[in-house]
């Protein structure tokens, strides 16, 4: 039996989102400052540069987190590697190698709670059901998820285009039912959602945060010819084709809807 005081009830802590086993909290100001850093801390808070954390309630669901993300835990919490035999280890090692994600993502079970490390990035909770049960994440965004979600490495539609664009060939896909959390460079309020119905979306830069697994993802020239690409002033663009949706950051880049 345990009790926790002065966490979500703290006046300096704001609950910004809650979904499934996850609660995202935000520290409104950095109160642990010295005189020489007080001014910087003040303006950080004014400009929404704040520490954020994820609280995981394992009584609601067991969770899988990025390696090294745990800060503290209380109560009945058991950590496992999530590996179910030699075959599963080899599969996860291969997926980690090609996708750039950690090979081992620890799974936590029990009825206690766990807090993840603070970050200045924006923590966004999403439900895989809203993506038809299959969503692809951009590299390095995954933080945590309901352990019922299966992890897969999905390959881009074109090997040569990925190499030419300096992009990774594989991305992490989450499949099944459950809530997941990503770390993004912009808040949820700024993310743009574009829904395609057998159509095409072209983005100049890595501004897509997540997209439906059913979309074909390639890197192509912005124009139909080398001359056309040169004339437009753009080079290679990320292209999403088919039916599904794309969640995109608005900061920089250009979008063409064809």
From TrEMBL:
InterPro entries: AIM24 (IPR002838), AIM24_sf (IPR036983), Trp_RNA-bd_attenuator-like_dom (IPR016031). Transmembrane segments: none annotated. SUPFAM superfamilies: TRAP-like. Pfam families: AIM24. It comes from the Bacteria. This is AIM24 family protein. It comes from Candidatus Ruthenibacterium merdavium.
């Amino acid at each position: 039996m345990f009790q926790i005081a002065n966490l979500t009830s703290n006046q300096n802590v704001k609950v910004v989102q809650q979904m499934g086993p996850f609660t995202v909290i935000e520290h409104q100001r950095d109160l642990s400052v010295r005189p020489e850093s007080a001014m910087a801390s003040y303006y950080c808070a004014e400009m929404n540069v704040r520490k954020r954390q994820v609280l995981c309630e394992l009584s609601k669901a067991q969770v899988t987190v990025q390696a090294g993300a745990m800060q503290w835990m209380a109560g009945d919490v058991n950590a496992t590697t999530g590996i179910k035999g030699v075959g599963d280890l080899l599969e996860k090692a291969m997926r980690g190698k090609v996708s750039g994600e950690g090979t081992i993502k620890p799974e936590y079970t029990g009825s206690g709670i766990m807090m993840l490390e603070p970050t200045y990035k924006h923590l966004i909770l999403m439900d895989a059901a809203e993506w038809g049960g299959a969503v692809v994440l951009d590299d390095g965004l995954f933080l945590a998820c309901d352990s019922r979600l299966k992890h897969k490495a999905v390959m881009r539609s074109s090997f040569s285009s990925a190499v030419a664009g300096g992009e990774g060939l594989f991305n992490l896909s989450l499949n099944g039912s459950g809530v997941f959390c990503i770390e993004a460079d912009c808040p949820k309020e700024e993310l743009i959602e574009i829904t395609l119905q057998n159509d095409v979306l072209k983005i100049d830069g890595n501004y897509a945060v997540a997209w439906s697994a059913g979309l074909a993802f390639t890197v192509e020239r912005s124009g139909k010819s080398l001359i056309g690409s040169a004339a437009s002033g753009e080079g290679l663009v990320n292209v999403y084709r088919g039916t599904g949706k794309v969640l995109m950051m608005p900061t920089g880049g250009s979008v063409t809807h064809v």
